[in-house]
Design goal:
3-stranded antiparallel sheet; 8 helices
């Protein structure tokens, strides 16, 4: 039973299989875990293991595929928190007729209406996310990485209780990615939102996450679930690598995910 004071989502013996041409492809089975309120949980695993499918099930976004996706087990969600959620996908999915600033304001407009304080905060976030001067640009006038930053700001400025992230930084260059990791982690902590963060990047998971769940190959299962602790520079994605625990966590995850030759 979901504990509303501690958890936002409870996954109980969850299984999923896709049906295609009369054949069943098992994605995962018997997954069981809970998501603690206000924590950032990174989910990492091999490509194609079912991470994005799991995220969409948690976000309740797969109803339209009900004839192709068979589910077992259950996902319990806190009903009030579920109403205040946002998702950041790998592609930005911006509204082409709205400027960058108008796109970012979208979540705030839908959530509680826009006020002067919110407007000022959003403009400040454009500076932080290195988008200053592009507030009035339309998506087609922005690079792919800039569009993704707009999508990230749109989600964060909606102040969600639940934030679902499907590799949101994968299209952003390495240097900018490290800088944005720091801002993103700080804002998630400020908002105290429960964040589910899908990534292929082991270093990103170690820096960002309050908890890391490692999945196996398909049909995937949980092969590790732990709380990382960095004794140095936990708020700086570059300096945190000086922490002796960082390399230990990297090796721990890499050994489980390292491809093996046939």
């Amino acid at each position: 039973m979901l504990n509303p004071s501690k958890n936002d989502i409870e996954v109980v013996n969850l299984g999923a299989s896709y049906i295609s041409n009369g054949r069943s492809l098992e994605v995962f089975k018997d997954l069981q875990f809970s998501l603690d309120r206000g924590k950032l949980v990174a989910i990492i695993g091999p490509s194609g293991c079912g991470k994005s499918t799991l995220l969409r099930i948690l976000a309740n976004l797969l109803q339209s595929l009900s004839d192709k996706l068979l589910l077992s087990g259950k996902v319990e969600r806190h009903p009030e928190r579920e109403k205040k959620c946002a998702i950041i996908e790998q592609s930005p999915a911006l509204f082409p007729w709205r400027t960058a600033f108008q796109n970012v304001c979208m979540g705030a407009e839908l959530r509680a209406g826009l006020n002067v304080w919110k407007c000022g905060r959003i403009r400040d976030s454009f500076k932080e996310y290195q988008l200053h001067g592009f507030e009035d640009s339309f998506p087609t006038e922005l690079s792919g990485g800039m569009q993704q930053r707009v999508a990230i700001l749109r989600a964060l400025n909606s102040e969600p209780d639940l934030l679902y992230c499907d590799e949101p930084f994968s299209a952003i260059d390495f240097v900018t990615r490290l800088y944005l990791n720091k801002l993103f982690k700080g804002m998630c902590r400020e908002l105290k939102c429960t964040t589910i963060f899908i990534t292929h990047n082991i270093e990103e998971a170690i820096f960002l996450a309050d908890r890391i769940i490692v999945l196996s190959n398909r049909p995937c299962r949980i092969i590790d679930d732990f709380v990382p602790y960095l004794s140095r520079h936990s708020t700086d994605p570059v300096k945190c690598r000086e922490s002796p625990e960082f390399s230990q966590y990297f090796s721990r995850i890499w050994r489980m995910l390292e491809p093996t030759s046939a």
